[in-house]
Amino acid sequence: DSRTHASAPEVAPMSGRLRKHRSKHERGGEDRPRTGQLLQSASVNGLMMDFPLTLPAIFRHAERVFPGREVVTRRPDRSLHRYTVGDFAFRTRRLAAALEGLGVRPGDRVATLGWNHYRHLEAYFAVPMTGAVLHTLNLRLHPDELAFIVEDAGDAVVLVDESLLPLWEKIAARVR
Q1: pLDDT at 165
Q2: Fewest 10 Å CB contacts: which of 59, 84, 125, 160?
Q3: Which residues pair with residue 132 across a beta bridge?
Q4: What angle, rounded to 10 degrees, do the helices at 143-153 and 165-172 form?
């Protein structure tokens, strides 16, 4: 690989002022755990997460707790689209199943070329739910740049907003 990688910056030693501040607290009798010690306090244990805070976990929570809440987005034609979180969840699960039906597997990259509206929101959650990686394309880039990015990323699937099909047609012939 001919790419140049910057080396990690060196970490500067802690300043004396910070050391004095820390030792002042220790001398003040505060019972603070030192680095590496476990926090044994009941108040802290109640604040710990029982599961990783991932998009699929956020999705399941919203689906369970807010199924009737309204989601409002603006379409490319500037009109509003309204539906409920329950409808969003149903459509998102259908998209995830469709992606898996296309052969998308965990670790694959799925690109989106679309505006920021309800369909992109669905893709934003559906792709990680399949274990794939969401790769949002910047629709303001030149078609040559987009073609290079899609090819370099090795996107397995590209989801294209209908209004952006003319842009995609300029790119599609250049990618595998």
Answers
A1: 96
A2: 84
A3: none
A4: 60
Alpha helices (H) in the chain, listed in sequence order = 16-27, 42-45, 55-65, 85-101, 118-129, 143-153, 165-172
Read off the tokens for 22.
């820390």
List, for residues 126-174, the tens digit of each pLDDT value: 999 999 999 999 999 999 999 999 999 999 999 999 999 999 999 999 9
User: What single string gives the DSSP state of each residue in 3-26?
Assistant: ---PPPPPPPPPPHHHHHHHHHHH
Q: What is the pLDDT of residue 46?
A: 63
- Whole-angstrom Cα distance, residue 131 to residue 99? 11
**β-pair partners for 160:** 113
Quote the tokens at residue 126: 């559906």
Closest C-alpha among 114, 163, 118, 117 to residue 134: 114
Q: Quick one: tokens of 163?
A: 């209004």
What whole-number distance in Å separates Cα of residue 113 and Cα of residue 101?
Answer: 20
List of the chain residues with pLDDT < 70? 1-49
